[in-house]
Amino acid sequence: MFADKKLVHPSLLFRAVADAIIIAGIATVASPAVGASNDVTISNGGLSVTFNLSWGAVVTSIANVNVANGLNLVDTVGVGREFQMDQFLMQDIGGSQQLMMNPTQAGAAGNQAYYQHPNGSQFPQVGSPVVNWSASGNQFQAVITPLDYDTGNPTDWIYVENVSINSQGIANFHFNCYDYQPQTYSMSTEMPTLYSDSTDAFMYPASNGSVQTVTASPTWPQPAITSNGWIGNVDTTDNIGIFYTTPVGFPEMFGTFPGDAVSGNPPLGKSNVWADGGTYGTGSFPITAYSGELFSSQFSVAVGTQQTGPSLIAQQAPAEFVVRSDMITNGVFSVNAAAYTASPGYPSEEGNPAAPTGWITSGGNSGINGPDTGFYGSSNGYEPFAPENTAGVSDFNFLQDKGAFSAQIVATTAGQSYTLAFDAAARAGNSSAVLEVMIMNPANGSQLITLTVTVHGSITAKNRRNNREAGVHAV
Fold first, then answer.
1. pLDDT for residue 303 is more than 90
2. pLDDT tens across 229-244, in order?
3. What's the CA gap between 196 and 183, in Å, rounded?
4. Nearest Cα to 155, choosing from 80, 97, 89, 58?
5. Confidence of residue 27 (pLDDT cuts 50, 70, 90)
6. What is the pTM of this model?
7. Strand partners, 25
């Protein structure tokens, strides 16, 4: 939900004023109670899409009552299948690219050795936490903190999933994937990947527009092809397919897995579209994932027959994959955190910096706590001003006393729209605190947008992104 405003100056002043803690995000918004089945379905009366809240709000069913009697092809036999997003994060070790982390929307596979542990360690399957969600009629939204598929450990990523079904029976997906990892990685990302049952064929358009059909259950992986706008997983026996748009020019892969277990009927099929650094895809679109970046993916999904599906999906808006950098400098307050060596983290005290890198502060009542500070774990304490629960959160800026603030000037471009998102919580022992966030004109100090939020003493499972957002339009 966005509040559109006009800016009268080509820059923004971000200013937070409160007795609260800023953690590059915002206070918790209560989610509806999760039902016993943990499934949530939206529909327009024809097409329906089902999300599973126990497993990162992945799509477990896409069906149309007017096609094959509402048959669902999405496979759900294990974590990492379904219809979802993920990333493969790699670093160069000894001259070769090594997988370091695999944030996966559904969660962690379990029952396999920790690849990072020399002796191996088993753990159960576990789903990625859904921080909050909402569903109404033909619309669904969720905020997910994806787990590492291989270890089950939390990652510093946040997915915001928005899905709506229009009157024509097309599901429109929009994912924002926020990277808060402090390290820099080479990245490959599936955006999305679809595992499907009863899949013996795949359909896609050639460069001249003609529809290509590959039958006879081709084994995974077939040679990568270049997207010309869409791809479909097809069950020729029941004459049904799931078709989705893909960004033109990006590599696509497809194929089947003979003999693999399925939740429905074999064979198991898979298709995906890649933006990647070369290790898991084709290397045509090398990506470096920097801390603070936003990876946005938008695509449409339709269910149709072999005869109707291609023309239906070809009429939809082109899919997009966009990389956006965070305009806030040091939004996770970690850049110079190690220089804060004197507890409890007050600025300019016993050699501590005057302010976090990139920020303007009110001085003595605005400081830094967190595991990257120089005094963390010392005899002087750990995080003296932390909220009760900082699960998944690293460093943070604390504000004490009325009038304390941290601010930053951000250059904007006329005609562009921007979103400001943040996390916040009250200090442990305080039942609540009032945080005021303002977008201002730095030329004259006028307030353009003011958000007043009551925050509490816990950030449960990284309640980040989309808990509160303000949209602005620069003019």
1. yes
2. 999 999 999 999 999 9
3. 34
4. 89
5. very low
6. 0.69
7. 423
**Which is more confidently placed, 474 or 97?**
97
Would you state the structure tokens that stand for residue 416, as one six-digit string? 């562009």
The residue length of the chain stands at: 475
Q: What is the pLDDT of residue 472?
A: 43
Per-residue H/E/C for the chain:
CCCCCEECCCEEEEEEEECCEEEEECCCCCCCCCCCCCEEEEECCCEEEEEEHHHCCEEEEEEECCCHHHCCCECCCCCCCCEEEEEEEEEEECCEEEEEECEECCEECCCCCCCCCCCCCCCCCEECCEEEEEEECCEEEEEECCEECCCCCECCEEEEEEEEECCCCCEEEEEEEEECCCCCEEEEEEEEEEEECCCCEEEEECCCCCEEEECCCCECCCCCEECCCEEEEEECCCCEEEEEECCCCCEEEEEEECCCCCCCCCCEEEEEEEECCCCCCCCCCCEEECCCCEEEEEEEEEEECCCCHHHHHHCCCCCEEEEECCCCCCCCCCCCHHHCCCCCCCCCCCCCCCCCCCCEECCCCEEEECCCCCCCCECCECCCCCCCEECCCCCEEEECCCCCEEEEEEECCCCCEEEEECEEECCCCCCCEEEEEEEECCCCCCEEEEEEEEECCEECCCCCCCCCEEEEEEC
Block residue for tokens 């009927």: 265
φ, ψ of residue 218 to 5 degrees: the values are -60, 135
Tokens of 287: 């990506």
Closest residue by Cα to residue 220 from 260, 190, 191, 187: 260
